[in-house]
Fold this protein.
Amino acid sequence: MADGTRQRWWARSGFAVGVCAVVAPIVFAGLLSTVALLVVAVGGVVVTVAAAYWFLSSRGAVRGCSAGLAVLAPVVVLVLFVRAGLLWVVVLTCALLAVAIFCAHRALAAASTTPPAPEIPARPPRRPFLVMNPHSGGGKVAKFDLHRKAEALGAEVVLLDGPETIDVVALARDAVARGADLLGVAGGDGTQALVAAVAAEHGLPFLVISAGTRNHFALDLGLDRDDPATCLGALRDGVDVWVDLGMMNDRPFVNNASFGVYAELVQSPAYRDDKTGTVLQMLPDLLGAQRDSGLVVTIDGVTVRGPQAVLVSNGPYRTSDLVGLGRRERLDAGVLGVVTVSVNSARQAVGLLQGGHARGLTTSRTTEVVVDSVRPLIPVGVDGESLMVETPVRCTVMPAALRVRVPRVRPDLRAPQQGLDLARLYRLAR
């Protein structure tokens, strides 16, 4: 079957099953019962989200009651469905909706798969230089024997294994001066960005070894995060891909720069040891109803005042990702992604369910963002590292500035997922 015909029938199937999902409860439960089902379901969602917001923004008894309410609301909804004898109708409707969404995604994915960044053949480096942090990722450097394996492939390796603070930029520059023809890092994304900027400055390939805790940059490159030793295969048989590099003033970032709530959380000394506990302890103060961040964000001439959280990413994250913990569609789009969030009430917390149309939430793509504040210094989280930066802060993007050396086989390389665009789906169905 031709691709166009296959896309058309996936789209038509999606619409057909979607209509069945709408009609099924009316046929089996009746119109009035269907309306009642909808009211109860929406009410349960609203109460659950509001309770979750109160849990995050309160302490003590209010937090405990909110947690109980968040758990109790869906249970009550389920009991009401069971007592009305309509649970099977709900299950059937949800199953039909799931099938409809699956068909729609298949149609849209087949219709427009954005090609990945082109791969350029590369010769093995003669004098690779690698920086490794033995403490990063819970000790992955030692666990996967990365030091020995890299040296066996001809790399010079420096371990960041001392109490003193080591200037990785100076190390990289010295290696370049001594003739290094590839730079690489086994460590966190913050260290990756610093050495990557040196590689970009000198036009050298950069090797990412997924030995960090989260490895967001490695994730979007499609590298194997379960076995960082596979990344070393690029030293023997690799290819190059060109990606963008973000800049916050003169500081590079490969993932994102965050301001407001998230930046203040990262700044807390307890954050690294107990991330969840620190977030729960600080959020009530950070999300207080009267809190004003004092931030002023300018995006393409549009000003957003007082957002509680701002995320500027090197390439936009998916629109449903408000905190930069997911995947980016591309690393070579030549634009920054910007998300600003203001949540001062339970009503606005519920509104976040509407995604990009929620009040207090903006998402955009641009090449420059300026973050100013009433304070001369503000905390900024840069690739998970905490900094205090003078305002105003200017974030820009350097398109295709970094040449990354990757293995020929990247097991986690995926095509970007398409959003559920109903208008586009309808055109395909026609």
